[in-house]
Amino acid sequence: MRHILKWISSRLDDFKLKKKLRILYIYSVLLPIFITDSVIVAIFIASESASMKKGMENIASAVKYNFFYDIEEAAGATKKIYMNKYVNQFMDRQFESELDYFLSYQAFMKDSLFESSIGTTASSIIMYADNPTIVSGGEFKQLSTVKDQEWYQYLEGSSRDGVLYMYYDESRIPTVDSKRKISFIRRLNFYKRDGCEKLVKMDIDYSTMARSFVKMNYEAPVYVCWNDKIILSNQGNYGQWKDFETFDLQDKVGYQMNFASYGAELTIYVLKPQTVIVRQMLKNIPLFILLVFINILLPLGFMIAINQSFTERLKELSQAFKRIDDEKLMKIENIRGEDEIGIVMRNYNRMVATINELIQTVYINRLKEQEMDIERQKAELLALHSQINPHFLFNALESIRMHSLLKNETETACMVERLAIMERQNFDWGTDFITVREEISFVEAYLQLQKYRFGDRLSYRLDIMEECMDYQIPKLTIVTFAENACIHGIESKTADGWIFVHVYLEDEVFYIEIEDTGDGMEESFLNELRNKMNHASIDMLKGKKGVGILNACLRLKMATDNMVSFELESEAGVSTMVTIKIPVLNIQNNGGEL
User: Fold this and answer.
1) Residue 516 · residue 485 · CB < 8 Å
2) What is the DSSP string of 407-422?
3) d(Cα 502, Cα 436) in Å, to the nearest integer?
4) Following CA atoms 240, 243, 248, 249 in sequence, which dihedral angle do they give, to the nearest 10 degrees?
5) CA–CA separation, 413 and 510 (whole Å)
6) Pick from 130, 168, 177, 135: which is nearest to 149 by CA?
7) What is the pLDDT of residues 304-334, one digit of tens each?
8) Which residues pair with 506 in a beta bridge?
9) Strands 162-168 and 140-142, sheet pairing
10) In the Cβ-directed half-sphere of 119, how many Cα atoms lie within 13 Å?
11) 179 falls in which pLDDT band (50, 70, 90)?
12) Does residue 535 surpass a pLDDT of 90?
């Protein structure tokens, strides 16, 4: 067997790849799938059709039997009344007065054993007679009171002595009785000599009948219909106080049985079960397992031979691409076969020789340039850090000195605590990025520190959208602008002033606004500062003015790939507002890096 596989493998080495794939597809994919699917489809069609039809037929037969049982029970009870001589005589008797009727009624119910003659039932039985001397009430009523009702009209139009009739009774006032009626009505004409028209109407207990129908736990949805009205169903269509619903699921019917009961033409609809396919699959698991083995074993022999022909060589070619020695690609030593893979392997060796030359002349030189560029950027950042630290520290310490002189150092401890919060962040340059939440804590510490200095002259408000708290910005960004607003806005103004800090998101843009009600700026200086902020560079920081603002602007530009924009608005003697806009895509959330 091994020699045969080796011979097939050597022969396949010279075949074109297209021919190999065609062989693989026919014998390993197309043929097994065709055989398997044909068998499965044939089994399922035959098995599902027969099983489903038989099951639905059995369900319909069981429903018909149970329905007939309830109706026959009602028909039997009325037949006992039909043949009861005493009942017929009582209904034909002409009573002299209402008292005479009442006394006769009590005597009749006591002596005739009426209830025991018809058995115990929860159904309602009422007898009607065309006798004006009968007082309507209890089990006996005058026939004239119901001659206009639809069930009586149905009986009159029928040639049968006993009929089954289903209707929605809107005339019944008590709400405790079901308004859906399944009634068996029988003429009491057993004794032909009687001249008085009599009949008995038995209303089957609909709620009990409907609940019993549901409790049968049929495996499919079942509907018993009369004139397209759903009389009984195991799907919850048995509300006792609403009219019968119309059956409109003809497209889902799997089996239908028509039958007649005492003049009523009824139809049983059994809907297609939803779990037939699953049951059939579980039932045919052994056959499925056999088909799986056929699909695996048949292509296995061909796959072994074909694998040795091109899969192994493709694996060698793939490993060759991954193998690098001293930044050089390695050649394939053992090239075999005359097919496309053999040609690719030879072309790969020629490509390796060319790429190894290019690596030396292009890639390594470019890598060195990138490393130098990264070092230059790190040096620029360090230069920025070294400029901002002493500048910020000087202003903080000046505030502490002024407060100590004015307040005799009674609150120095609190001021030092605020300063410590700021300076810990100021000197910690392990990372240049912090969350807005952390930055705002430094802003508040700084403004509280300045409030010790200015007293009631300085008020501030921080309005930060909660969704912005976890975004990351360069360290000391907002603090720098708040410091500028305090020193250049509030400090030079004798009247009280406010500083507002607002951070929010709008239309996929991240906004930072710092506003002060200080002295403002002249138009000429405003235009100059606005231009510097939007074009901040390392060269501009060599000057001595505006170092803090330009430093913050430059770090924001570097952190957002130059996608940040600055707006500066000011009115001399009134206010100044700085607005920073950053696209949301250029600022990181959830603790990530920018």
Assistant:
1) yes
2) HTTTTHHHHHHHHHHH
3) 11
4) 0
5) 37
6) 168
7) 666 666 677 777 777 776 666 556 677 777 7
8) 509
9) unpaired
10) 11
11) confident
12) no
Per the model's pLDDT, the better-predicted residue between 358 and 474 turns out to be 474
Amino acid identity for residue 457 in this structure: R
Buried b (16+ CB within 10 A) or exposed e, 463-487: ebeeebeebbbbbbbbbbbbbbbbb
Enumerate residues 6+ apart whose C-beta is below 8 A from 563.
582, 583, 586
270 within 8 A of 59, measured Cβ to Cβ: yes
Q: Burial level of 193, CB count in 10 A (0-12/13-18/19+)?
A: exposed
Token pair of 377, please?
């950027």
pLDDT at 593 over 70: no
Phi, psi angles (nearest 5°) of residue 2: -65, -40
The answer to whether 225 and 266 are in contact (CB under 8 A) is yes
Place of tokens 């129908």: 213
Q: What is the pLDDT of residue 172?
A: 56
Tokens of 273: 């079960």
**Residue whose entry in the numeric block shows the structure tokens 């996929």:** 508
Residue 499: pLDDT band (50, 70, 90) is very high
Q: Which residues contact 262 (CB under 8 A, 6 or more apart)?
A: 71, 75, 160, 162, 163, 164, 184
Q: Please give the structure tokens belonging to residue 84.
A: 């009861």
The model's confidence at residue 278, banded by pLDDT at 50, 70 and 90, is low
CB atoms near residue 26 (< 10 Å): 12
Radius of gyration for the chain, computed over Cα atoms and rounded to the nearest angstrom: 49
**What is the rounded distance in angstroms from the CA atom of residue 234 to the CA atom of residue 507?**
55
10 Å CB burial of residue 231 (0-12, 13-18, 19+) is buried
Q: How many residues does the chain have?
A: 594
Beta bridge partners of 162: 186
| Strand pairing category for 140-142 and 124-129 | parallel
Distance CA 247, CA 223 (A): 8
Q: Which amino acid is at 40?
A: I
Mean pLDDT of 467-485: 90
pLDDT at 571 over 90: no
Token pair of 277 as six digits: 């396919």
What would the pLDDT profile of 67-114 be if each residue is shown by its tens digit? Answer: 988 899 888 888 888 888 888 888 888 999 989 999 988 888 877 656
Q: Can you tell me the distance from the alpha carbon of 85 to that of 3, in angstroms, rounded to the nearest whole number? A: 104
CA–CA separation, 150 vs 160, rounded Å? 16
- The residue behind tokens 């020789």 is 353
- Res 517 pLDDT > 60: yes
What whole-number distance in Å separates Cα of residue 201 and Cα of residue 185?
Answer: 4
CA torsion sign for 412, 416, 419, 423 is positive
**Tokens linked to 520:** 């403002």
Q: How many CA atoms does the CB half-sphere of 238 hold within 13 Å?
A: 20
> How far is C-alpha 381 from the geometric centre of its chain's CA atoms?
48
- For helices 312-322 and 340-358, angle between their N-to-C axes, nearest 10 degrees: 0
Per-residue exposure over 282-294, b if at least 16 CB sit within 10 Å of its own CB, e if not: eebeeeeeebeee
Nearest to 463, CA basis, from 500, 499, 417, 433: 500
3-state secondary structure of 8: helix
Q: What is the layout of strands, in order, in the sheet containing 198-204?
A: 140-142, 124-129, 198-204, 180-187, 162-168
Q: How far apart are the first and last CA of the chain?
A: 63
Global pTM reads 0.46
C-alpha span between 189 and 15 (Å, rounded): 99
